Each structure stands twice: as structure tokens, then as C-alpha cells.
Amino acid sequence: MSEERIIRVGTRKSQLALIQTNNVIQMLRSLDPTLKFETLPMTTTGDRILDSALSKIGEKSLFTKELESALIKKQVDFVVHSLKDLPTTLPDGLVIGCVCKRDNPFDAIVLHPKHQGKTLQDLPAGSVIGTSSLRRAAQVQRIYPQYKIENIRGNLNTRFKKLSEENVYDAIILAVAGLERMGWHQCISQCGRLQVLTPDECMYAVSQGAMAVECRADDEATLQLLNRIHDHTSTIACTAERAYLRKLEGGCSVPVSVFTEISDNQMRIRGGVFSIDGSQVVQHTEVVNLLFPEVPIPSQNAFVGIHCQTPSKKNEYTSAWAAGERLADVMVKQGADVILAKAKATSKEEIIKEHELKMKKQEAASSLNIGGIN
């Protein structure tokens, strides 16, 4: 890259997204202080729709479509995402140029100040737990059926304000990585209001905790630059998780979870599919030696959208990708497809009902306006 070039970086406008983007820029600057960057914040569909649960919006690419459009039009050189927001199938011509070192992937309960010092299991029956995620809701409901789960939308700042000021929620569920990046984790923990959930309580979302940088597949200069901040272990884990999710045809409208561990070239990936109320569950674990793929190594250089820049590591990408697909196949045989079909049908019905309700409200408002004119 020439010193004169200004690298244009696309990002969402939220405080967390800007922090994540700045983290990526600082990683690159630490390797080459001469690099110059320009940040272009954008508003996405998911940022604009704040009155509905993500599962009820009924659209993919909620937090990525506008950013990817700018990338395709060459208005930006790369885009920084939370990898869990990126669909498993990317637009033609785009790839994930790198996955940065994964932060804590787990979820945490943040308690209302009035419950300081308690744990989730200490809350009284009927307590309201806020989350916009069907995955989190299903898993918590499965273990704690005595609690009520209510939708809560907005960025992290908005959710914290709702928790502390509206007195509606007894606790909310958030990703630990987001809390840490915002600099809030230690303070909340010291106040006795934070409880990190274990995998047995709540497995995390596919690729949760990982930042990804998306770019054009033919932009060799940017790919070479991003390769310098690529984390191999995180990439392999996320490759397996994304392959698992794509084979299940899951997304934010269905409760799909995962837990992955890698040690000494061995990967253990555990998947979970839940009914919306948490009453039904299918879980399975796959263990694989990453150095010895059980399927032929394919010719392509991208695995579920993640670009492999090192040919000597392609066997590990292949092993991870195949393990994720195998995990999904086994779970489908155990009935995961039936649970997912019901969850998708329920979400679709809720989308239709919500749309009809909005139309009725608009008609009622229109009638009132007409009456006022007369």
C-alpha cells in the first residue's frame, strides 16, 4: 500500500461498532504507522427498526446490507462487522478478509440495581428478563421457566438505560464481548450485577465475540493488509460454526447455538437447536483432528465466506468446514429440522400478526384525522 493512499473503512454508527472499527484500525496502525484511514459510518436496516424483535423483522443482512452495498460500489475498501451479524452466504465478489482474535464469546446476565449481589437463580418467580435473541430466550426459559422473557431492542446504551430507568426488566442478557469493548464489564462485575452464563446455561451464537473484516475478493492489496491481523485459531472455529449454521439454514429467527474449543490441533464443536419456549432441544458434539480432513480438500479459497490466504493451512479450514456440516447433518437426523421448521413458522406468523396490527393502527389513526377535518 502506498503512503498516499487513504483507506476508507465502512462501519455502523453505533458506539460499539465505532469502537470495534477503531480497534481494527489501531491493530493495523500498530503494524504500519504510515497507514491513513477514513471512517465512513452508516445506518443499517437493523439500526432503523427498533420497535420489533430481530426475529420478527423477517429479513436477512439486517446489519450488513448497506455496508456491503458501499463495498461493492467501491465507496469503501473494507467493512468491520461483528461476525455473528454476517450471513453465511455473502454477496458475489465479497469475502471475509480476516477474522480478528476472538474475544469472550459468552453471554452474561446484567441485573437491575435492586438485585445487586444476587444471581439469576435468586430472582423471584415472575421476574422479567430482557433479550431480543430467541436463542438466549429459549435457553434461559428452558432452565428457568418461572421467569418471563420480554423483548428489548436498541444499542447497548439504550438497553442499559431501559434496565436502570424504566423498572420493567429485572435483568437483561448481553454478550460479554460487547460489555468488555465498551469498558463496562469490570464496573458492573464489581457492583455485583454481572453473571457470565456457562455453556450448560446458554451456549453462544455462531461467531459471537469475533470481529470480521469484509472486503472485495479481487482486492489483493487489502487482502494482504488484512492478513496481518488475521487470527488463525479464531478463524478455524468460526469456519466450523458458520458451516454448521448454513447447513441448518438458521439465522436470527431461530434458536441455534454453539460452543467450540480448539486445543492441540483438535476441535470440539457442540451445537444446540431449541424450540422457542425451550421445551424441546437437540444437542450433539463433533470432535475432529484439524490436520487430517475427512473429506477432499476443495479448490476454492473461501469457506462459508472466509478467505483462506495460506495454502498450507487449507487442510484445517477443510476439516473445520466439514465438521460443522457433519454436526448439522447429525442434528437434523435427531429432529433439529422439525424444531427449526416450527420456530420459523411461529416467527412468520408473528411477523404477519405484527404487520396486521400496525395496519389497523394506521387505519384507526387515519380515521381520526378524517374525523378531525370534518
From TrEMBL:
Matches recorded under InterPro entries: HemC, Porphobilin_deaminase_N, Porphobilinogen_deaminase_C, Porphobilinogen_deaminase_C_sf
Pfam family, one: Porphobil_deamC
Keywords per UniProt: Porphyrin biosynthesis, Transferase
UniProt KW Electron transport keyword: no
Signal peptide: none
A GO cellular component entry from the record: cytoplasm
Keyword DNA repair: no
GO molecular function, one term: hydroxymethylbilane synthase activity
Gene Ontology BP terms: heme biosynthetic process
Cofactor(s) listed: dipyrromethane
Superkingdom per UniProt: Eukaryota
Domain Porphobilinogen deaminase C-terminal intervals: 236-287
Enzyme Commission identifier(s): 2.5.1.61
CDD domains: PBP2_HuPBGD_like
Annotated ranges, domain Porphobilinogen deaminase N-terminal: 7-223
PANTHER family linked: PORPHOBILINOGEN DEAMINASE
Family: Belongs to the HMBS family.
Protein name as annotated: hydroxymethylbilane synthase
Taxon lineage: Eukaryota, Metazoa, Spiralia, Lophotrochozoa, Mollusca
